[in-house]
Amino acid sequence: MINAPTTQTITLTRPDDWHIHLRDGAALQTVVPHTAAQFARAIVMPNLKPPVTTAAQATSYKARIQAAIPVGMRFEPLMTLYLTDNTPPDEIARAKGAGVVALKLYPAGATTNSDAGVTDIRKTYKTLEAMQKSGLLLLVHGEVTSPEIDLFDREAAFIDQHLIPLRKDFPELTIVMEHITTKEAADYVAGEAASKTGKLTLGATITAQHLLYNRNAIFTGGVRPHYYCLPVLKRETHRLALLEAATSGNPAFFLGTDSAPHAAHLKEHAVGCAGCYTAHAAMELYAAAFDSVGKMDKLEGFASFFGADFYGLPRNTGTITLKREAWTAPESFAFGEALLKPLAGGEQLAWRFI
Ligand code: DOR
Ligand code: ZN
Fold this sequence. Notes:
TIM Barrel; eight-stranded parallel beta sheet; 14 strands; binds (4S)-2,6-dioxohexahydropyrimidine-4-carboxylic acid
């Protein structure tokens, strides 16, 4: 990273987004250019309707994403499959052959388009064995779904009830706990990394919204649906623990925006969809978070190195530059026939991607 003496501009190795929702069809025209402008690669979530469950589906979805990359931009979508109770173990070899890098575990009912998700992790054990052997990663949405567990406690409960037993049963399986939101998750991932010699087998992505906001943001002056995502924003102590983890230089923590576009009218709704859209200004939002604690020097590791190292992929070679210059993010974008309202739309941001 090159820091100008006044830290008015910062140049970083081109970053990657290790967790993104790009959707399909007309939506790709809006969201792919935003992500491709800032990131060299992104791990593309498979929760389409119907979900991407086979290598063949991932290959054709990848081609549709590539067709939406603007001419002259270079961007590589890294594909994932949606793990179900019935994913056959022999799909793993086909997935590996097709360049798929990971499978995503959604507990059934945990979030958007998760109806086909896993009802009991034990049902997937043969497939997890095949993944462990072939080196495909397991990405987890780490929340229990039991209605008797409070919404704000579901991530911590997932660690105790599912993640710890899973890691005992599959010690060589490489797992990413996606979009962590709690001190419990940050402490668990950091503790596992500290006790490990050699290659890390547990990492975590952290979103910009969980570094910048606590749960008050959802309720300031009324219900604010554009701050609602899953796992939901938590209280301030958790935000501070995540900020500490992200800026610590610990390679187990890396960037994953979880940018999740929904038509605005479906978020501003009696039963509003979960998901914050941040791809339009992803690096600007992360820069604001790192700058808030004087840790701009730690942004490059988090955004550009640690994810690639964790996935065993080469680091990128190009660079991007951010400048300290106030600008106002658009309030909305066209999104097929609808509108897409980004997080912090219409608000002033202190850093600008140039
Ligand atoms: O807020 C979220 N939105 N969390 C998820 O896990 C899924 C995502 C989506 O696909 O909209
Ligand atoms: Zn997600």
